[in-house]
Amino acid sequence: MKIHPVRTRRSAEEFPQSEHLAWKIAEVATDPVDVPEAVSEMVINRIIDNASVAAASLARRSVSNARAQAKAHPHTPGATVFGIGGTFSPEWAAWANGVAVRELDFHDTFLAADYSHPGDNIPPILAVAQHAGRSGADLIRGLATGYEIQIDLVRAICLHEHKIDHVAHLGPSAAAGIGTLLGLDIETVYQAVGQALHTTTATRQSRKGAISSWKAYAPAFAGKMAVEAVDRAMRGEGAPSPIWEGEDGVIAWLLGGATAEYDVPLPGVGEAKRAILDSYTKEHSAEYQSQAPIDLARRLRGRIGDLEQIASIVLHTSHHTHVVIGTGSNDPQKFDPTASRETLDHSVMYIFAVALQDGTWHHEHSYAPSRAQRPDTIDLWNRISTAEDPEWTRRYHSTDPDEKAFGARAVVTLKSGEVIVDELAIADAHPLGARPFAREQYIAKFRTLAEDVIAPAEQDRFLDASQHIADLKAGELGQLTFSVSENVLARAPKLPKGLF
Q: Which residue range or ranges hold the MmgE/PrpD C-terminal domain (predicted)?
């Protein structure tokens, strides 16, 4: 990997285009390096993973609304939308599928200087691949780039510190991935990356307080903007530049300011794009920093015994976990039993309480209003708090995979005065965890979430196509979707009509 120092530049300063971060990203996207077999296999895993969570969310309101908007934009050749037949304008297909994938917060993750769900790259890149009649090999190359760029930006540039939503790294990565997919030239990719970043910077209020359905729409919006940015760039339209380094650019006014410098790692010329292998998926439908605490709670149940005897629980954890999903957020909504699913998903106190009581976690049952409003759950929930521990914060930011951790140390004080302590650094499903996810687990997750949604024969067809992506010829990528019966779609709530 080559490290690129990135900082604000004065308008009068000598700063050639070839030194812009957007140009460096475009160079990576246009480097015709081979894709390692391990990367290709992991791309397949993540396509299956995305389809899993999309199936489970298909009848939810937000997903149904996004699908309805896409249906209003049919197009030939176009791209497919999960659950229905026909083809649609690729930016709208990316939009609908992006919401379906993101709705349950249940797909892959990468955490470093910032947060990310790099599987959010798949809907826009796949939609363009289907529309443009590309092959499975082209798709794999494009997705390798999308994952690489987003993960490398997340390694280096912290957005949340400045209250900028993490999808600001997704717009550029998806645009770069589409550039690789289509074999575009450096100048075109450069302009598309700049446009995609410019149009996808927004505040983190979408993940603060009463969290709304926009949390699912935000990455879909970034993917849609990336598709549109590539379209404009291909037509010769330019972007604000230098978009990151300009005197009035992203770093100067949205991030660290005129004196900040970021060291962005990117593959060198001829170096394979392997970043997808550093990411990890979720076993549980909850914010990633809740994955290890859920497993820890399940492990603690036997040691604690009667949960009524708990006086307090303190989860000692990283700054990120404490401030974003813990009591350090100072969000009263994180203790509100009538809060939205999205808000409960960002309350590690609620999640730890339910996991302790149930010994399991379910993408629907664990968030049901009746579950959140149980008096014994509310009582336990309010006895749980978080505290920042510098050592957990250090491990969170460590670049050593053997040290990097997203877990917590639980200190359980019983009413008798007895104290029970246990900790878990990484989730069981993490590549270094007790039960790492492999192809078998990705397929099992798909089967579980597709049950009563996708007919068994259709499940088989989709899994077969997904596991042979590299063999799909130009124009055959329409197989990478699934259809469901009208009865399944009828489970969606009755929706008001919008503009389209």
A: 284-467
